[in-house]
Amino acid sequence: xxxxxxxxxxxxxxxxxxxxxxxxxxxxxxxxxxxxxxxxxxxxxxxxxxxxxxxxxxxxxxxxxxxxxxxxxxxxxxxxxxxxxxxxxxxxxxxxxxxxxxxxxxxxxxxxxxxxxxxxxxxxxxxxxxxxxxxxxxxxxxxxxxxxxxxxxxxxxxxxxxxxxxxxxxxxxxxxxxxxxxxxxxxxxxxxxxxxxxxxxxxxxxxxxx
Length: 210
Known about the structure:
Layout: H1 3-8, E1 12-21, H2 38-45, E2 50-56, E3 60-66, E4 69-71, E5 83-89, E6 93-100, E7 103-111, E8 116-126, E9 131-135, E10 139-143, E11 150-152, E12 165-177, E13 189-204, E14 207-208
Antiparallel strand pairs: 1-7, 1-8, 2-3, 2-5, 3-4, 5-6, 6-7, 8-12, 9-10, 10-11, 12-13, 13-14
């Protein structure tokens, strides 16, 4: 892989130990969230405090989990039946939850856990919004002239068209088997592809926000 080309495009390639951890002791249940247990399970599995980004049918909520409790602006709440997708994350872990029919499935990725040595690409996903308005409880509403408004769990943000909030992401790379493996049994590496991605932290100008 051309690491120089990746860096030239504003991305960074690095290597880390990473693994998918089971959600529950029973392997047969590892991909499903037992109804009514999402918040409790997330609080037990992820080191607190951590951030929560919940994509619901009617809105997006961004908040934190502190002392085992999900906290969003103005006391809003996440109800499991309304979840389309949810990411709960800290710098080392992420619980990704997604809807499949009536059920919720999930995976828990943990970095620096003894597991597979992986390559990953670091990227920063910009969040829409350069105007800010301080709201109660240590939150800030961000917006543009037109479009969606988001409320973030941060205070005293300084934003401009050249200074935006972003979400730092790790994008994990896997390799497909080669189409023509050698006759002696050696299986050379095939095409590189992204196999997973996770949120790491919020940033401004590359510096993490807490």
